[in-house]
Structure formats: structure tokens, C-alpha cells
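Q: Here's a chain of 366 amino acids. Please give me its 3D structure as C-alpha cells.
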Amino acid sequence: MFKNKFFLLLLILIAAISILYAFFIANTYGSMDYQYSPAKLFIDKINPYEYYLYEDRSKIIGSQYPVYSHSAYIFFSPFSLLDWEISRFVWSIINIILAILCILIISKKAKLENHNMIIIGCIFFMSTPFRNCIGNGQLSLLVLISYCSLFLDNSIKRNFLLGISYMKYSFMPVLAFFVFFKDGFTGLLVSGLFCLVGWIIFSLYLDQSLLHTIFQPLTVGLKGFDSTLARGDLFTILNRYDYNLFNIKSSYWSIFLVTVVTFFLAKQVSSKKDILLTLNLLLVINLLTFGHLIYDYLILLPTLVYSFKNYNFLKAKISIFIVLYFWFGIRIYEKIKSYISNVDIIIPSNYDIFINFILLIILYFV
């Protein structure tokens, strides 16, 4: 069936419609997560973190909250020099190009045949996370292509480019541990250069001390991230319970426990020889440990590619099924639940989060 020309043409047509629909959303009522507003505030010498925390937020479009590292606003500064309509148009085009590059890079590394690469690409473009990422103007594709730097042989280039993903802090812990286990403290330092230099430039440009600005992204991130929409991770599950142990709040215990789990998982993955498998596992660990919204689940692309490569094994078929559930099944389930409950937005229940968490554990071990 996979080699049937009519089947491939049908997939390509549906995928093209999905891309156009995502592009339409991004350039009409979407791009509400695109970091245009914070970058523009930065260019105007206004600290975007302080503006979000202490001002009226009237200069922030939609939910364009500054929840990323300082380097993100250096990166997006050129985009903020453009008019809003042109800027989001350019970013949505770049995001689509990044998606195509990710498919090509990962599929070529897996040595997939062209028809399988086309099928994977079409499935990816039809998925809910892809449309949400493009429509919201998210950074998930930038993170994914940054992770693809794992395929580079030169450790300096590899670690520096991997560090670009640190812009989105939820992707940092497992990768930082992995880089440390793989290339030591020097590798970790190189991977942190992008964010470190971004922090210095950010502070100097705004004429603020480094100590004053260092923790501002984390402060805003904890306040601006809607954890109620996280899909199924250890951090979210632990935070569902409020307790006090040895006079330490439950939230701090959650951070500690998740960090310990991330440490050991990263150490385990660092010993793998298959780079594609390593990429696959690192990205699954990200979803498994820290909170992510549905658009971040597009990082399961390497999992789908790796499973296609090993399609003859039962484990691979199970992995494909789980990826398709996260890409399509969750949205179908939520639509049905929304219709029955007669509400517009479905907040994942404890049951939903637990089931998704178990599925991610299975995805890691199979």
C-alpha cells in the first residue's frame, strides 16, 4: 500500500491542505505565541520580563509572553524590526522550511527509501502538533532542528548548535546532562554559549546588571506557562499533589525528583551508539519529564522515523501507534469529549495525564 501512487498522491494532497491551513491560521488570527512583542519591547529598550510582570501588558499581542531565555530576544530582534503582518508571515515560512529540513535530515540519516520519507513527511504535516506549531508561531521546530545537530561529528559545532535549543528551558535539562556525560564540562560550556552570550548582550543593551536579569526568564516562565494544558509528564503529575516534607514545599520536591530522574535517563542514553536512537530517546525524555503543550509533540518525528526504519519489529509498530495517538488521537478524543461536555476547551484530567505519561514510558522502553 505504501508504494501505491494514488495513495501517495492522496497523502500529499491532504498534507498540502494541512500546511496551507496552518499557514492561514498563522497569518490571520494566529501567531499568538510568536515572540514578536517581547523582541520589539527589547529593541525599544524595555525589559520584556519586567514589562510582563509589572506593567499593563498592553504592548503584548495575544499570549506572546516572554517565557524564553534572554537569547531568544536577541534572535528575534531582526523579526521585530518588520511590521507585525510581514514578520509573522516570514516566521511562518521559516517554520515550514525548518519542518521540511527536519524531515529530510532525519530521514536521510535513517536511510529511508523516498516513498517512506514522503509518507512520514505527509503524516507529519497532517499532524495536530505541526499545525499548532505553525499556527501559534511556536519554536518547537527550531528546537527539533537544533537537536538534529547530534548528527554532526565536530563536537564544538555540535554542542554549540545543540545549545540553541536552550532558548526553550523545558528542553534544557536532559540535553545539558547528556552533553556533560558525552563531552564533559567543556562540551557543556560550549552548549551554553548561545544563551550565555545572549544574557550578556540582553543585560548590556538594557543597561541592567547581569545579576538583576539572570533569573527573570525563569520567574516569568513559571508564571506564564499554563501547566493545566500539559499533556502527560512527571513534573505535572507530581505538582498535582500539595504537601510539605521536611519543611520543603512540594513544588521544590517535584523539581528535585524530576531533575534526578532526568539525570539518570540522560546518563543511560549517553552510552548509546546509535545516534538516531539517541535523538529519539532524548526527545521522548523531554516529553516524559517536563511539561509540554501539544505543539511540542512534533518532536516525536525521530521516533516515527526510527520506527519506520525498523517496521518489521513489533516494538516499532507499537511506537508508531503511540506517535499517531499523540499526533491525531488526542485531538479526536478531545473533540469528542468537548462535544459531550459542551465546552470549547478541554483541560486534560488527571486520568488523561496519567495515560499519556504511561504511553511515553512505553515509547521510551520499546
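Q: Can you summarize the key feature?
A: The chain has a mean pLDDT of 93.
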